[in-house]
Design brief:
It contains 15 helices and 16 strands. 37% of the residues lie in helices and 20% in strands.
Length: 425
């Protein structure tokens, strides 16, 4: 019987060693910017109570209706694999009494999200996100800080021509009036809406503004705009956000159709885009969610956040031809010749690693020529050669892999010498 060869589940993928440098580049750049701005890392479980998301994200959204991975455990409790980060962090804020801490509480995360969506380039059923949450601050400056921090990350990643779109969708005070105007307009033009958007109109009209259907796009060209229905408080808040961005010289485009895909958003919403065409151009976005914590059992608490996909940023970096910074440690390769040298080479590799000197080697096989050829392929700057003569004299040969020059060092001095040459402190 033929052996079964297993493959990744559809929509999932492996991050192989050659791909990890890209992920590390994005994650470390984001983490450095977040920590520098006073954000602390948070990590929530991959499994959460289903009710957390059905209450916070909203019925009629694609996430709730079609995309959540839902399961029932042995206690008949309905659980979901985390589809997004904010609701779980809001739950953690309440559960751990973070409201008693000095406000605002600023948190960042780097986590996997799970959505049963059609797999596409840069968006998998398990995908990785970076995110920011500022909980306990109602001021426009909090919105602006999140936006400017994300802008700083994209700049440090050397992403060219990233653009920012921004809008305000109002709050509970003014959104009902806008919702009525929107429903009246869409109902008048209902026959021209795509079928999926007619269903959205009945369940969640604001979702129609996010439609990518061609027939609906024609109708949306004359749709009522949220900015014309904002109450005074929302107008002042949005003007404050734009004032901060203008003062910093951060370019943006007002997009009256921008609503984001989750129901907990209020007031400011924003999205960053790269140069790539189509849906994959979106790098990440966010906004204010002042009603979320109250929805899931807490006190009214203002908050604003951001989430961005790592995979999409990597695609954008590669498409733009951005080179990875040299993040590889300067390794040394230890080669050995003959049985007595095998144990000495193995012992030296471990001594180098104990001394924080990156070291590799293959002490059990191949001749010295094959070992040095492997060292050359690995791109190491230096190789150490130990033969029977070196074992006897307690020395090593240190070879410069760029020009072939060799020198003899005392075995007892090798670790200290390489730490000095590699500037290891």
């Amino acid at each position: 019987m033929a052996k079964q060869q297993f493959q990744t589940v559809r929509g999932m993928y492996d991050i192989t060693p050659d791909r990890w440098p890209w992920f590390n580049f994005v994650m470390s750049t984001f983490e450095h910017a977040a920590v520098s701005a006073g954000f602390g890392r948070v990590e929530t479980p991959s499994l959460e109570d289903e009710g957390l998301f059905s209450r916070s994200i909203g019925e009629g959204t694609d996430v709730i209706d079609k995309e959540m991975y839902t399961l029932t455990d042995r206690g008949d409790k309905k659980l979901v694999l985390r589809p997004e980060g904010t609701a779980g962090i809001a739950r953690a804020y309440l559960e751990h009494g973070m409201g008693s801490l000095p406000q605002p509480v600023k948190m960042y995360y780097i986590e996997s999200m799970f959505r049963y969506d059609r797999p596409q380039e840069g968006r998998y059923r398990e995908h990785r996100q970076v995110g920011l949450e500022v909980i306990g601050d109602a001021s426009p400056s909090a919105d602006a800080q999140v936006i400017t921090l994300v802008n700083r990350v994209y700049r440090r990643l050397r992403l060219p021509n990233v653009t920012l779109q921004i809008n305000s969708i109002g709050d509970a005070a003014c959104r009902p009036k806008y919702r009525k105007a929107l429903v009246d307009y869409l109902t008048t033009n209902e026959k021209q809406l795509a079928e999926v958007d007619r269903a959205r109109l009945a369940k969640n009209p604001l979702r129609v503004l996010d439609s990518k259907e061609a027939s609906t796009q024609v109708i949306l060209s004359d749709v009522p705009q949220t900015l014309n229905y904002l109450c005074d408080a929302c107008q002042q808040h949005f003007a404050g956000v734009l004032e901060y961005l203008d003062d910093l010289g951060i370019a943006y485009e007002l997009n009256p159709l921008l609503v984001r895909g989750l129901d907990y958003y209020t007031r400011t919403v924003f999205e960053f885009y790269g140069e790539r065409e189509g849906a994959q151009a979106s790098l990440g976005g966010g906004g204010r969610y002042d009603g979320l914590l109250e929805q899931i059992g807490g006190q009214p608490t203002s908050a604003v956040g951001f989430a961005g996909g790592i995979e999409r940023v990597i695609l954008e970096l590669e498409a733009a031809g951005v080179a990875l910074p040299d993040g590889q440690p300067k390794r040394v390769y230890v080669a050995s010749l003959g049985e007595p040298a095998r144990l000495a080479a193995f012992r030296l590799i471990e001594s180098l690693l104990d001394g924080d000197v990156p070291a590799v080697g293959a002490v059990d096989r191949d001749g010295i020529g094959a070992q040095l050829a492997r060292a050359d392929k690995l791109g190491v700057p230096l190789a150490i050669i130990i033969g029977q003569k070196e074992v006897r004299e307690e020395t090593v040969l240190l070879r410069d892999m760029t020009n072939g020059a060799q020198e003899t060092l005392s075995l007892s001095d090798v670790v200290a010498e390489l730490r000095s040459r590699f500037n290891i402190v």
